[in-house]
From TrEMBL:
It comes from the Bacteria. It holds the Pfam family Helicase_C. This is Replication restart protein PriA. Its EC number is 5.6.2.4. It comes from Chiayiivirga flava.
């Protein structure tokens, strides 16, 4: 065999090891560059894995006999040149094995080696007989309404489902009479009846024009618009312009932003079917949406974090709604940030990336202030709505019963009496955050975590960190007193108190427990009706919802967030407060916000609520970050480690610390316990690296990552590198 001829496949396997694996091509297949980007099935130890050919190379003379790959699974590469380049960049930047990154980017079925799915969609249209018969169908019936709808054009099943959850019944009735027929197509279906857009305000118009002027080139743009200012209308208009140029659009939304309500809004306004990609879908549905975009059949995709990995062969625009949202950062495994990856893709693709928020992240705001991002502002609410009035309620000298003061109860009562709706916000689920012994001060802590257990109902203690559950003890385990009292109020307790006080209005609780399914939120809103009513809930209520009768937002407490040690805690809290306050008075009715606090003079609250609002807060916070050397003025990487024994943990971090010794331009901070030093029975510690130069930090990480993998201690320690961590926990 002539040596040094490229004849082995360098395969990226879905393993956390930072290297590629060499295989001979399957018998009868030549190792050519054309194989790069295709999936192969290979034996690995006793297992069979699906990997992606990352390159073709000459065999390493030092390597022993190589195994043959079992099969090549694709006729062409799965990732186009841009996506391939972006994924390689992501693997390098967030320090993750390429095989793992490739696997994350693929929908489940493709990752497991299945063929690309069939992407044809079922479409219904009137038959000739149906077109003739429609006017004769009984008026006011559902079959008639459906036939009228189909007269305007054929509709795919998603559009019908968005029109009515019970669409199948009238459809069957028409089908039985031969009035409708189904066909399968991969083409977008034209002629879907659409809701006309509102007339845009001047600021909205300017923003749309600014985006449209940049179509066809990379441009990062921040759409900085107060809550209810009509940012979504700007996205929609920009997407329409992008579609009119024959290009595709990708819209990213936060985890909980993608309600059926939001999907319907896009679906009814855009002239093409809107595809969705999120964790509520089956793996097969996700693979179909991914493939339809890859083939150019789908033109618009809305999805959560992982939708950022969708191929965009005819990209025109990327929109990131609520760009500040923490759910864009993956918090385990491959810790990528979807917003940042979207910006990199936008640059490679040469398309604008539109970041929207009422409370932009300090990083993004800093870029806008420095002129690196175009800064589009919407400072007023759209249509008739005006900004809500804010009242800060000093509760230091007020008796709180079940977490609610008398003036707040009165404000809620007045709101309900006007036939309007109130939202009572508390970012703690459960009945009470702490169970305390009134006599000796004992409180119920988790046995496996350094954390208090939350009381749920009357009898259950639950750890929100490890899921541990136990029954409330009959008496204090320390002093036998019977005086165990719940301290503070979670959503469950607020719900009970409000139900007792206002028994005649619908009351809905929205938190993780009551909102398991994706359409649960919509059911909750439906149960609220459109008269007087109360919503109680956590931050799930803070985002994106538009309830026209909602005029009062009551913030029961955010005091526990005011004194957190995390450098981003203030930013998070400010964003949450502004977002939840932004639910009040979004339509014709004026809104009000009431905030109960024991710290009315806290600088964050003063600046945010009575001073200059979010931008004044952000200016102060940026000055503090600059002084303290925190992002965006420094770049961080957190090495997190956990182990069952303290000695292994310390030894691992000591070695890591030593490895980082000679890094140029990077500060290595001494290892220390994590803010929660014990979780689920494991000890946790961390080491922070920081640098004012992204490049210097990246250079260190490139060296450090493989060396950490080679450490002797690594086997007993679970560790991860978190580049640009969103929190230090
Ligand atoms: N130009 C307009 N004229 C009249 N109504 C409008 C206009 N633009 C938007 N609206 C309406 O104002 C409301 C708020 O708009 P939208 O949901 O787009 O705001 P947003 O900025 O995305 O809000 P948030 O960030 O708070 O979720 C919606 O009911 C929308 O239909
Ligand atoms: Zn626990």
């Amino acid at each position: 065999m002539p040596d040094r001829v490229p004849s082995v496949l360098r395969v990226a396997l879905p393993l956390p090891l930072p290297r590629l694996f060499d295989y001979l091509p399957p018998r009868g297949v030549a190792a050519s560059a054309a194989l790069v980007g295709r999936r192969v099935r290979v034996g690995f130890g006793s297992k069979v894995l699906v990997g992606i050919v990352a390159g073709i190379d000459a065999p390493d003379p030092a390597a022993g006999t190589l195994r043959e790959a079992d099969a090549v699974l694709d006729a062409t590469a799965l990732f186009d040149a841009e996506l391939d380049a972006s994924l390689r960049w992501a693997a390098g930047y967030w320090q993750r094995a390429l095989g793992d990154v490739f696997a994350t980017a693929l929908p489940g079925p493709l990752r497991h080696g299945e063929p690309l799915p069939d992407t044809a969609r079922a479409v219904w249209r009137l038959t000739e007989a149906g077109a003739t018969a429609t006017p004769a169908l009984r008026a006011g019936t559902r079959p008639r309404a459906l036939a009228e709808r189909l007269r305007a054009g054929a509709q795919d099943e998603d559009a019908l489902a968005a029109w009515s959850p019970q669409w199948r019944t009238p459809l069957r009735s028409l089908a039985r009479r031969g009035l409708v027929e189904r066909l399968w197509t991969t083409q977008p279906v034209p002629g879907t009846p659409r809701t006309p857009p509102p007339v845009l305000g001047a600021a909205q118009r300017r923003a749309v024009d600014a985006v449209c002027a940049r179509l066809g080139e990379f441009a990062p743009l921040l759409l900085d618009g107060v809550t209810g200012s009509g940012k979504t209308e700007v996205y929609l208009a920009a997407i329409e312009a992008c579609l009119a140029q024959g290009r595709q659009a990708l819209v990213l939304v936060p985890e909980i932003g993608l309600t059926p309500q939001a999907l319907r809004r896009y679906g009814e306004r855009l002239p093409v079917p809107v595809h969705a990609l999120h964790s509520g879908l089956s793996e097969g549905e996700r693979a179909r949406a991914w493939t339809a975009m890859a083939r150019g059949e789908a033109r618009v995709l809305i999805g959560t974090r992982s939708a950022v990995f969708t191929p965009l062969p005819q990209a025109g625009l990327i929109v990131i709604d609520e760009e500040h949202d923490a759910s864009y950062k993956q918090q385990d495994g491959f810790r990528y940030h979807a917003r940042d990856l979207a910006l990199v893709r936008g640059k490679t693709l040469g398309v604008p990336v539109l970041l929207g928020s009422a409370t932009p992240s300090l990083e993004t705001l800093h870029h806008a202030m420095g002129g690196r991002y175009a800064w589009l502002r919407l400072s007023e609410r759209a249509g008739e709505a005006i900004a809500p009035q804010v009242h800060v309620l000093d509760v230091r000298a007020q008796p709180l019963v079940d977490g609610l003061s008398r003036p707040l109860r009165a404000a809620i009562a007045a709101c309900l009496a006007r036939g309007e709706q109130a939202l009572v916000f508390r970012n703690r689920r459960g009945f009470a955050p702490v169970l305390l012994c009134h006599d000796c001060g004992w409180h119920a802590d988790c046995e496996r975590c350094d954390s208090a257990m939350t009381l749920h109902g009357r009898h259950t203690l639950l750890c929100h960190h490890c899921g541990a559950r136990r029954r409330v003890p009959p008496a204090c385990p320390q002093c036998d007193s019977l005086g165990l009292v719940p301290q503070g109020a979670g959503t469950e307790r607020l719900e009970q108190a409000l139900a007792a006080e206002f028994p005649d209005v619908p009351l809905v609780r929205v938190d993780r427990e009551t909102t398991q399914h994706r359409d649960a939120l919509e059911k909750h809103f439906a149960a609220l009706g459109d008269g007087a009513g109360i919503l109680v809930g956590t931050q799930m209520l803070a985002k994106g919802h538009d309830l026209p009768r909602l005029t009062l937002v009551a913030i029961a407490s955010i005091d526990d967030g005011l004194f957190s040690a995390d450098f981003r805690a203030g930013e998070r809290l400010a964003q949450l407060l502004i977002q939840v306050a932004g639910r009040a008075g979004r339509a014709a009715l004026r809104g009000a916000v009431w905030l109960q606090t024991h710290h009315p003079d806290h600088p964050l609250l003063r600046t945010l609520l009575t001073g200059g609002g979010y931008h004044a807060f952000a200016a102060e916070a940026l000055a503090e970050r600059r002084a303290a050397g925190f992002p965006p003025f420094a770049h961080l990487c957190l090495l997190r480690a956990e182990a069952t024994g303290q000695a292994e943990l310390d030894a691992f971090l000591a070695e890591a610390f030593a490895l980082a010794e000679n890094a140029f331009g990077v500060t290595r901070h001494a290892p220390m316990p994590a803010p929660m030093p014990r979780r689920a029975g494991r000890l946790r510690a961390q080491m922070l690296l920081s640098s004012p130069q992204r490049g210097a930090l990246q250079a260190l990480l490139r060296e450090l990552f493989p060396r950490l993998h080679a450490l002797r201690e690594r086997k007993k320690v679970r560790w991860s590198l978190d580049v640009d961590p969103v929190d230090l926990y």
